[in-house]
Amino acid sequence: MTHATPYPIGTPGTPWGPAEIEAWRAKQVKHRSYRDEVLSAIEPLQAAFDVTEYGSVDYAGEQYPFLVVRTRGWHDELPVMVVTGGVHGYETSGVHGALQFLREHGNAYAGRANVLVVPCVSPWAYERIHRWNFDAIDPNRNFREGSPAAESAALVRLLAPLGDKVLMHIDLHETTDTDESEFRPALAARDGKEYEPGEVPDGFYLVDDAAKPQPAFQKAVIDAVAKVTHIAPADARGEIIGSPEVAHGVIEYALAQLGLCAGITPARYCTTTEVYPDSPRATPRECNDAQVAAVRAAIDYALAHPAG
Questions:
Q1: What are the b/e assignments for 73-102, b being 16+ CB within 10 Å?
Q2: Distance between CA 37 and CA 77 in Å, rounded?
């Protein structure tokens, strides 16, 4: 679906300043509870996993701890599998798919891999069902040392000591109708640019790393997810969200260069999932199941092909 929605904050052609950011912030409403829906789901996992706080933020007097869940009995000689969700807080199945994976399959790799899961990178945005953080910054363009996004900087610090021990990193996302009705218009307004409408693909797809593509790895993930939900077709131009489809359901971005989460580490295998929760052909449970299928397939492939 294509939208052309003018954005109500700011002056067209002029980037936002502090006043516009404050006006945007005032419009954000808390719709759900990070504590009740995420922290409460992590709490029982402490019986089987090591759960630690790797940072926190205080936004206008509200405290948000960042939590990481790790394999208990971590062995340094084993490869590390990283799973991240909720980089964009509104992308619900990324968060709950990561939690479901931990509950149902997190210990299935004991003795073969160290599994590290950050279920919700952006808790303030999770509560407000938004893409940006409190400062109107998209964490997923800012994963680098010294990042202006506290969520991104904390995750970079967490993963930095692991270095090349990370064999696989899968980052769980969604593409939604609100990308075109709200978030891309807001981005254009914030940056003082003209909004150019795009299309939202109906179905699941992956984003590979253009700098080090792994087509067989991506195919293994797509094949697993296709058993759970439908894969997005390319549009009439052979593209998905404006990028050429390089294989069925797969596009490529320069992950590290763009500051994207899946590009934080030098992992041989990395990908970003994109579930489409607004499809009439998908249910919330199906979206979560698709994320779990993707994580399992990604880890299984990496373990079977450690040397590429």
A1: eeeeebbbbbbbbbbbbbbbbbbbbbbbbb
A2: 34
Q: How is residue 8 written in tokens?
A: 């109500």
- 163's CB contacts (< 8 A; 6+ apart) are 265, 266
**DSSP 3-state percent helix, strand, coil across the chain (nearest 5):** 35, 20, 45
DSSP letter for each residue of 6-63: --SSS-TTS---HHHHHHHHHT----S-HIIIIIHHHGGGGGTEEEEEEEEEEETTEE
Average pLDDT over residues 31-35: 98
pLDDT tens profile 100-113: 999 999 999 999 99
What's the whole-model pTM score? Answer: 0.96
Spell out the domains of the chain, with CATH numbers in brackets. 18-304 (3.40.630.10)
Tokens 């195919």 sit at which residue? Answer: 219
Write out the two tokens for 277: 């929760």
**Cβ contact 167:114 at 8 Å:** no
